[in-house]
Amino acid sequence: MIGFSNLTRKLRWLRDDQRGAALIELAIVAPVLVLAVMGIIDVSNGFSRKLALEQGAQRAIEKIMQTTQDETVDNTVKKEAVCQVNGTNTDGTCKTGLITSSDVTVTYRLECTSSSGAMTVYTGVAAATDCPSGHTQAQYVSVNVQGKYSPMFPFKLASLNADGTYHVSATAGMRTQ
Fold first, then answer.
1. Contacts of the segment 81-89: beta carbons below 8 A, 24+ positions apart
2. pTM to 2 decimals?
3. Cβ atoms within 10 A of the Cβ of 62, count?
4. Contact 167/146 with Cβ under 8 angstroms?
5. In whole angstroms, how far apart are CA 132 and each of 49, 128, 136?
6. What is the pLDDT of residue 108?
7. Residues with Cβ < 8 Å from 37, sequence gap 6 or more?
8. Three-state SS for 120?
9. Strand, helix or coil at 31?
10. How many C-beta neighbours within 10 Å does residue 97 have?
11. β-pairing verdict for 136-149 and 104-113
12. d(Cα 100, Cα 87) in Å, to the nearest integer?
C-alpha cells in the first residue's frame, strides 16, 4: 500500500511533468488554425471572383468606342464583358463558363441641364432622345456584370442565398458625350 507521502510525491511529479503538454496544446489550437486558414482561402477566392467581374466591366466600357457596324453597342459591350470574365479560346472566341451575356446589363443615362441649373435625367429608352434646345446634355453608359460564387465551405449564418451561392456584381461606367 502506498503511503500518503508517496502519493503526494507521485502527484507532485505528475503535476510538474511537462512531457506531452505541447501535443495537448496543439490538439486544442490546430482545429482553430485550420478553420481560419480555410476561411481566408475561401474569402480570397470570393474576392478574386469579384475582381474578375470588375475587370470584365471595365474592359467592356473601354470597348464602347470600338463598336463596328456589324454589332450594336450593347452586343459589343456584353461580348467583351463575357470574354474578359470567362477568357478567350485560341481562335479568339469567348469561352463558356462563369457568366453569359444575360448576366451583363448595359444602361444608358442622359442628363439635360437647363441654363437655370435644373437637371432632368432620362434612363433606358428615353436616354436615346436629345435634350431640348438651350439645355446642355451629358450622356453616360454603364455596364453591370452579375456573377455567383460558390464557397468551398458555406457558412449558413452569412448572407448565403438559397442556392448556396453568394451573388457578386461589378459596375463600370463612362461619360460618352
1. 81/56, 81/57, 81/143, 81/145, 82/56, 84/52, 84/55, 84/56, 84/59, 84/60, 85/52, 85/53, 85/55, 85/56, 85/145, 85/147
2. 0.70
3. 14
4. yes
5. 43, 13, 9
6. 87
7. none
8. strand
9. helix
10. 10
11. antiparallel
12. 12
What integer pLDDT is reported at residue 98 of this predicted model?
85
| DSSP symbols for 56-93 | HHHHHHHTGGG--SSS-HHHHHHHHHHHHHH-B-TTSP
φ, ψ for residue 17 (rounded to 5)?
-75, 125
Determine the residue type at 76: T
Q: What is the mean pLDDT of each run of 10 residues along the chain (177 residues)?
A: 70 72 85 91 90 88 71 80 87 85 88 88 77 86 88 71 83 84
Q: What are phi and psi of 140, to 5 degrees?
A: -130, 150
**Closest-CA residue to 173 (of 132, 123, 125):** 123
- pLDDT, residue 156, reads 65
Q: What pLDDT does residue 148 have?
A: 87
Q: Number of C-alpha atoms within 13 angstroms, CB side, residue 133?
A: 0
